[in-house]
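sorry for the late reply, my laptop died twice this morning and i had to redo everyting from scratch. anyway the thing you sent over, i finally got around to it. pasting the sequence first so we're on the same page, its 215 residues, then the predicted structure underneath. double check i copied it right bc i was rushing
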Amino acid sequence: MPIIAPSLLSCDFLHLNDECTMLNESVADWYHLDVMDGRFVPNITFGLPIIKQIRKATAKTLDVHLMIVEPEKYLADFKDAGANILTIHIEATTHLHRIVQEIKELGIKAGVALNPHTPVSMLEWSIKNIDLVCLMSVNPGFGGQIFIPQTLDKIKSLKQLILREGSHALIEVDGGVTLSNAKEIIAAGADVLVAGNTVFSAANPKEVIALLKNI
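ok and here's the structure:
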């Protein structure tokens, strides 16, 4: 079964505690938290104070996705806020290996995200050290976008790289995941499905999460 990580980017922040309660009662495995700074991506979302409050509301894994410039400045802060997994963009740093090591030294898992235009070959020399690879299947910055079909081939290429290098990295797909395409995404090799609009716009979010989990 895939790991299901609903993205709170699409939740109702006016009723955040209710949304956390719903996720806690669901079969969702992780919370996916998109931190955007308005510089790396053209949107601003939330930061440390909100994550600290979410941490109080759940014992589930907090999968924190940093869509920010200079992520190395904030690694310890996000760990202290409650992150279990901290994912940084390969495009946001010139020192990927160093940052991955710094995250792991904090005692949490290290993820690396790739924008749609970034080839998986960029990870060839670091894949053994990475716990999670987040493949963006939309252009990052906003929720509710349509899945880019070429991502399926990218998932397959990444899976081949992971197997060839003996890595234990999980493949996470973020963007445009729906009940219609989830089966194909999993078949291509994905381990983690990030779903925002699909979950939080549904009449019964818990039911949708269960359907994704059992695809």
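The CA atoms of residues 113 and 134 lie 4 Å apart.
thats about all i looked at so far, will dig more tmrw
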